[in-house]
Amino acid sequence: MTKVLLADDSSTMRKIILRSLNAVGYSDVTEAADGEEALQVFGQEQFDLVLTDWNMPKKTGLELIRDIRQSNTTVPIIMITTEAEKTRVLEAVQAGVSDYLVKPFDAETLRAKLEKQGC
Amino acid sequence: MRVEFVNPFIKSLANTFEVMLHQKVTRGDLELKSNFCPLHPVSGIIGLSGKATGTVVLSLSEIVALKAASTMLMTELSVIDDDVTDAVGELVNMVTGGAKAELEAYNLSISLPGVVTGKNHSVNFPSKVTPICVPFSTDWGPLALEVGLITSSEIPAASSDTTQQPQEVSS
Prior knowledge:
- The complex is a heterodimer of chains A (119) and B (171).
- Chain A has helices spanning 11-23, 35-44, 61-71, 86-95, 107-116, and strands at residues 3-7, 28-32, 49-52, 77-81, 99-102.
- Chain A is α/β, with parallel strands linked by helices.
- In chain A, α4 (86-95) links the parallel β4 (77-81) and β5 (99-102).
- In chain A, α1 (11-23) packs across α5 (107-116).
- The longest helix of chain A is centred in the first third of the chain and has 13 residues, at 11-23.
- Chain B has three helices and eight strands, in the order αββββααββββ.
- In chain B, β3 and β4 form a beta hairpin.
- The relative contact order of chain B is 0.28.
- Chain A binds chain B through residues 8-13, 15-16, 19, 23, 53-57, 81-87, 102-106, 109, and chain B through 15-16, 19-20, 22, 72-74, 83, 86-87, 89-90, 93-94, 96-98, 100-101, 104, 169-171.
């Protein structure tokens, strides 16, 4: 079973993503309310996939990706965000993101992104 | 206000409703706002700052707010509670985020969304801006988008008051 770490500071957005994940068959999901918490949890457990928002308090999604990539270059990381400008996408790619999903999205698009990562 | 500012928001709203809520929206005629009372009782509000400054309001009828939140959270909601207002906040965030990408040249930052509910509430826009209201209809009921933006060069000195102080955060 794919073990997913989901980082988003909005509890509503976490709920929306979590229910979308559940709807397409991903049920082992650990939630984090900011980048710092996500990095801490990531250091304690083994995850197959990280889903992260961009703008979060304490540590942004971009900083989280950079920190994870220092020790783990293989775990798929997908950024789920409203930041759709090309410059922002490029910034995320340079930080080491595996894929990028712009909100709004539907569950099937999320599933396609996950499957593309082999999850 | 420049009409060119409104189209990205209209496009983004239609896309957000179609992708997130599986609802087609039908646009009504643009209107210039003569007062600051949104058309409907549930308002998702976001402040914008950068090379343009202003406010965006997603104004929803109660039924649209409830149906939208129920669809997003995949659960049946029948009263306007925190789940509904949080979902409306996420919706206005997505609508504004999509438009911001099209207005990249203005280097916009968006505030955290706020949500106000109740009949006859008002939302302030920057002074010297006449907001544009775009009504929409859906199978669920009516909604509206209200956009009031002014470029930095058009802002008179010390008169850019808005309802929210835009903070450089949003998701």
